[in-house]
């Protein structure tokens, strides 16, 4: 059987063939699902972020694939570009909206269970952290459609089993799905939804896209694929979902019911109780015959952060450069989860760095701190940004603070209503800066590199003040 290019198996097979050193297959049975989280943490401590394939995990009757998005180099390969070109490539492809292509059938309809036969005890879930309330679906992309326009919305929402036919989930992002659900609830109606659990990585990236209300992320997925997303309709509510998905749950979000959910290890590094406590009633379970569980590592893992951060960075870079041509780079460091951003610019007049920082702080509701630096600072390295802050920043003149703004509901330091302060730190040199940066002659650096290479010490050493 020829695999579709939109099939996860097509991606995994091709990637393993071309980049075998970036995929780790766990041939021994995994004794506890938390062991997968522990393996990811242990590998990251060693500077490694491979895709993990686990054919056997205790308590799970399907193979598990996780850590897909932990590497920016791998995300670049998904998009067909170098890691340094992710932002531009993602934005260009994501902007090429292609309507979905409806199929009569697809692998996700191999097995369909409905009504009283639904049993979510059979749905594979993993417990990621000791502090989690229960096993969770971390890769639950909820599909909803505007009843007036038919335009779809994709968004990620953590979900845990509440009963054999119900899931407890959270719409804490207060995004587009929240608006659709609130509109339905105002009419006293449940909101029909479908939950996609596992699909091609490009579909997953599309689900994390930052787009205006009314833009259908299924069309964004088409842009990323370079071909319309192949979809089928769910049996009961007729929602369009990926034909090659692993699992799809079809049901409704109850307009009134509230159920306990959380704590869950979130991107902040803390186990979060904050939740909207919504109830999703499942009417239909669809799955492939050979389904796999596609997991997203929770907490402040590289995968969790990258999946949300790459689309956000891509949008911010595009917006900033359209308004401020002096911006040369934007980076959301892993050390700041989603709350910090660094921006480099070639400032042509004093005060421009402040404008740029205000733009970022105003456009991105998650950001609490933005640090602006000059274009010669490598903003992918925290130590370079902190050096610029130490050498160029004067608190009495180079800081701006705005308070009382809505922020992330998951920020453990935010107010009970979710408001937060935001801060900009101007670590650019400014027009009156008189320091001269210490440098080493390029010829000396080259001879030093050659010497170290002969000693077998050439890799992984910083270039020092000559960078």
Binned, the helix content reads: 25-40%
Unreliable stretches, pLDDT < 50, 5 or more residues?
461-467
Coarse structural class: alpha+beta
Count every helix, treating DSSP H or I runs of 4 or more residues as helices: 12
Total beta strand runs: 23
- Label the overall shape: globular
Q: Nearest-angstrom radius of gyration?
A: 23 Å
Mean pLDDT: 90
Taking the alpha carbons of the first and last residues, their distance comes to: 52 Å
Largest sheet descriptor:
9 strands, antiparallel
Kindly estimate the percentage of residues that lie in beta strands according to DSSP. 15-25%
Describe the structure.
This protein has 467 residues and is α+β, with helices and mostly antiparallel strands. Helix content is 28%, strand content 24%. The protein has 12 helices and 23 strands. The strands form 5 sheets. Strands 5, 6, 7, 8, 9, 10, 11, 14 and 17 form a 9-stranded antiparallel β-sheet that branches. A 5-stranded mixed β-sheet has the order 19-20-21-23-22, with helices on both faces. Helix 4 (86-94) packs across helix 8 (302-323). Mean pLDDT is 90; it is low at 461-467.
């Amino acid at each position: 059987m020829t695999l579709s290019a939109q099939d996860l198996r097509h991606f995994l097979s091709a990637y393993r063939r071309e980049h075998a050193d970036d995929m780790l297959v766990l041939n021994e049975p995994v004794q506890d699902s938390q062991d997968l989280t522990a393996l990811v943490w242990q590998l990251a401590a060693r500077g490694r972020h491979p895709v993990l394939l686990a054919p056997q995990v205790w308590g799970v009757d399907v193979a598990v694939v996780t850590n897909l998005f932990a590497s920016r180099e791998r995300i670049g390969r998904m998009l067909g570009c170098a890691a340094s070109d992710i932002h531009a490539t993602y934005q260009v492809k994501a902007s090429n909206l292609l309507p979905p292509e409806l199929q009569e059938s697809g692998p996700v309809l191999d097995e369909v269970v409905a009504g009283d036969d639904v049993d979510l005890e059979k749905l594979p879930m993993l417990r990621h952290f000791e502090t989690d309330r229960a096993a969770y679906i971390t890769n639950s992309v909820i599909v909803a459609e505007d009843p007036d326009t038919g335009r779809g919305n994709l968004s990620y929402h953590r979900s845990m089993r509440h009963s054999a036919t119900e899931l407890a989930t959270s719409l804490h992002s207060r995004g587009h799905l929240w608006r659709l659900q609130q509109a339905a609830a105002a009419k006293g109606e449940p909101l029909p939804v479908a939950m996609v659990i596992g699909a091609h990585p490009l579909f997953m990236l599309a689900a994390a896209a930052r787009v205006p209300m009314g833009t259908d992320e299924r069309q964004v997925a088409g842009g990323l694929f370079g071909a319309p997303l192949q979809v089928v309709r769910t049996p009961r509510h007729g929602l369009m979902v990926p034909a090659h998905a692993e699992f799809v749950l079809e049901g409704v979000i109850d307009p009134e019911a509230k159920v306990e959910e959380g704590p869950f290890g979130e991107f902040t590094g803390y186990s979060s109780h904050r939740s909207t406590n919504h109830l999703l009633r499942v009417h239909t379970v669809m799955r492939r015959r050979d389904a796999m569980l596609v997991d997203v590592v929770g907490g402040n893992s590289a995968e969790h952060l990258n999946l949300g951060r790459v689309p956000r960075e891509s949008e911010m870079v595009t917006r900033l450069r359209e308004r401020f041509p002096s911006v040369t780079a934007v980076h959301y460091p892993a050390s700041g989860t989603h709350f910090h951003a660094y921006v480099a610019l070639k400032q042509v007049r004093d005060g421009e760095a402040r404008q740029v920082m205000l733009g970022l702080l105003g456009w991105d509701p998650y950001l609490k701190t933005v640090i602006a630096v000059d274009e010669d600072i490598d903003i992918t390295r925290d130590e370079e940004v902190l050096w610029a802050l130490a050498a160029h920043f004067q608190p009495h003149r180079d800081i701006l603070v705005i308070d009382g703004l809505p922020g992330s509901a998951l920020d453990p330091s935010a107010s009970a209503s979710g408001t937060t302060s935001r801060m900009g730190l101007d670590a650019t040199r400014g027009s009156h800066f008189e320091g001269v940066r210490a440098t080493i002659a390029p010829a000396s650096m080259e001879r030093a590199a050659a010497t170290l290479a002969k000693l077998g010490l050439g890799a992984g050493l910083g270039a020092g003040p000559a960078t």
